[in-house]
Amino acid sequence: MSILVTGGAGYIGSHMVLSLLEHEYDVVVLDSLVNSSAEALRRVESITGKSVTFIEGDIRNRALLDQLFTEHYISDVLHFAGLKAVGQSVEQPLRYFENNVGGTLTLCQAMDAAGVRTLVFSSSATVYGEVANMPIHEGLPTGSPTNPYGRSKLMVEEVLKDLAKGDSRWSIALLRYFNPVGAHESGLIGEDPNDIPNNLVPFISQVAIGRRDVLSVYGNDYPTPDGTGVRDYIHVSDLVDGHLCAMQVIARKHGIGIWNLGTGQGYSVLNMVQAFEKASGRDVPYRIAPRRNGDVAECWADPSKAEHELGWKANRNLDAMMQDTWRWQKQNPNGYNLE
Ligand code: NAD
Ligand code: UFG
After folding, report:
1. Are 51 and 64 a contacting pair, CB within 8 Å?
2. 73-105: per-residue pLDDT in tens?
3. According to the model, what pLDDT value does residue 201 have?
4. 249 burial type by CB count under 10 A (0-12 exposed, 13-18 middle, 19+ buried)
5. Structural domain contains residue 150
6. Is position 270 within any domain?
């Protein structure tokens, strides 16, 4: 039996594949490499000494999926494949809905036809929209995400809820990630944004290594302790552990479950800058810039449902997140680009 990891060459997916191999699972990766490099999987193989079956292809390709499910005996699908650049989703909404929503529909249809009905989906805290009181727990209704990317996640959640309701043979986990950061402790795999990073930690890390001059801090007039935005940053390895726990739980139970994957601790942008300077021993120059459209003041999880029901808790602290990010950046100043 193998686990199919869609998007397994990407940032979170590659860490997942590594962990699955370490836990003696056989893994098949399906990835179009639209936002990743096959080098990540080569490195996963060299860290683990195990091999991955890699299929370069698209989740929207039904014939390819049918062939994959015929050729490989798949028990579970971990579905990471998706486009995730918020700004790009505003400019290219059709591409985002087609890829993220259409792609997931095709994947589920192929799974159903093959009789594979165990699915873990990468959702996001963005589905909560703007929430008045922190922390955010799963009992809150979903809100209105401020961009097409976020809406694509919400739409997929709705589709999967209907699917589980309509056919009791499905076992589905919707995992709502807060802000994944960090890298594997080897420093061999990590986040490798193609363009100028949108997200805070990759940007800080590129400033520290000298690829960018200065960090723009988007707003210092939020109603937060230092005026800058507060988020729940979670180490990617903790996030991956959460998936392993969710897989165990849904293997025993049909239906759909929703879990936040966060630490329950919020840090401000300036806290993050300081923590990175400490981990790297480098200065991270910054300037205060206007607020970024669509940003909320604060967002952090109540992770207690995952702790009670999945037996999972994040246990890597901010220092570990920053040290691991820095090790990856230092060892790979140009990411997977080997030139
Ligand atoms: P990533 O871009 O590094 O990985 C996504 C992978 O999916 C890439 O390797 C890409 O090539 C692949 N892909 C995209 N569309 C595809 C398609 N149609 N067919 C096949 N492969 C395709 O992103 P990530 O940070 O690893 O995110 C993984 C998942 O987690 C995504 O679904 C993302 O939306 C979700 N998520 C990420 C964050 C975050 O901050 N990183 C937060 C919440 C949710
Ligand atoms: N920020 C800056 N400067 C930057 C980048 C970010 O000040 O150059 C600030 C933002 O304003 C925010 C915080 O840093 O206060 C975090 O921003 P990120 O872009 O790193 O993360 P977001 O919380 O905006 O969004 C992330 C993912 C979304 C996902 C969301 C919730 O990018 O896809 O977490 O899971 F939906």
Report:
1. no
2. 999 999 999 999 998 999 999 999 999 999 999
3. 98
4. middle
5. yes
6. no
Omega before residue 225 within 30° of 0, cis? no
Helix or strand (DSSP H, E) at 320: helix 318-331
95 vs 93: CA distance, rounded Å? 5
Is residue 14 exposed (0-12), middle (13-18) or buried (19+ Cβ within 10 Å)?
buried
By residue range, what is the domain housing residue 39? 2-182+233-262+303-314
pLDDT band at 339 (very low <50, low <70, confident <90, very high): low
Ligand with the closest atom to the CA of 212 = 2
Nearest CA to ligand 2 atom 3: 217
Name all residues whose Cβ lies below 6 A of ligand 2: 84, 86, 124-126, 150, 177-179, 198-200, 203, 215-218, 229, 231, 269, 292, 295
Active site residues: 149
Predicted confidence (pLDDT) at residue 10 exceeds the cutoff of 60: yes
Q: 16: domain CATH number?
A: 3.40.50.720
Q: Structurally, how many domains does the chain consist of?
A: 1
Give the closest residue (by CA) to ligand 1 atom 41.
180
* Placement of tokens 């028990």 in the chain: 75
The CA-to-CA distance between both ends of the chain, in Å, stands at: 38
Kindly give the distance from the C-alpha atom of residue 62 to the centroid of ligand 2, in angstroms, as a whole number.
Answer: 34
**b/e string for 78-113 if b means 16 or more Cβ within 10 A?**
bbbbbbbbbebbeeeeeebbebbbebbbbbbebbee
In a domain, 243, yes or no: yes
* Neighbouring C-beta atoms of residue 20, cutoff 10 Å: 27
- 219-238 tens-digit pLDDT: 999 999 999 999 999 999 99
Query: What predicted TM-score, i.e. pTM, was given to this entire model?
Result: 0.98
Residue 41 placed within a domain? yes
Pocket test for ligand 2, best of 83, 200, 230, 273 (most atoms within 8 A of CB): 200
